[in-house]
Amino acid sequence: MDFRRKLRELMNKLGYDLHRLPYPHVELHFWRPDDGSINFGDFLSPVIVDQCLRTHGFTMWDEAPCDARLLALGSILQSAFDGDVVWGSGLNLRSGIDDERFAKVTRLDIRALRGPRTQEVMRRRGIAVPDIFGDPALLLPSLFPRRFRRRSSRPWIFVPNLHDIKFLDQAAKNVVSPLGSWNRNIESILEADLVLSSSLHGLVVAEAYGIPARYVRLSETEGAFKYHDYYEGTGRFGIEFASSIVEGLEMGGVEPLQFDSKPLMNAFPVDLWRGKT
Prior knowledge:
Blueprint: H1 2-14, E1 26-29, H2 40-55, E2 68-71, E3 85-87, H3 100-103, E4 109-112, H4 116-124, H5 140-143, E5 157-159, H6 182-189, E6 195-197, H7 200-208, E7 213-215, H8 225-233, H9 245-251, H10 262-266, H11 271-274
């Protein structure tokens, strides 16, 4: 297990997938915990990309006109290599923006970013970035229109970031572990009248379905950059964070999400599978 953890840690650091297909294809890079478990927010990347492709008649496993690499969801932009395609990813400034390897990356095909803070960093480096923002998890209701339904049965839940799990009793009825399956976690979020979360995608999923949500900053392990990036990418600036679950309950959700999903959906890089027309 220690060997597997070290291998996964190296793969995450290098942004490399050992399970490559033996023909030209689009490799989707997304982050996975070093111990081989699944973090539901990051695992939404293959779920969402494959569902987008199916609306165009393709799948993630199709042979493509040529090899390509796509970063589509999560704070993984610092794992990019020259030539990568980016759709909705963002930076996590505590995860390697000053890394020597990433500092040399100058050629990215960016179709959309999570928010304007990531855009500003990329533009300062001379990389062209369109004014299209949004986390692809915001597309879940339109991609799965009959799959998930609101079932209000809990006044509130808390979805912790992986680093915050240790501060909580995972058996508590109001705690939803981010290590659960993507569909069960969405179902759990849709049971709540209020979602408190230190998991970014706990917030994104809740707001995608119109559930009031508030970021609760339980620790300093994660930088605040990615949360501001997400909020500002949906037109909300100066959002206040809660410092505890009790304070989060007192504050309630932030101002409602106002998001036009069409630009982000239209920016989906289906051409990587279809080829130039």
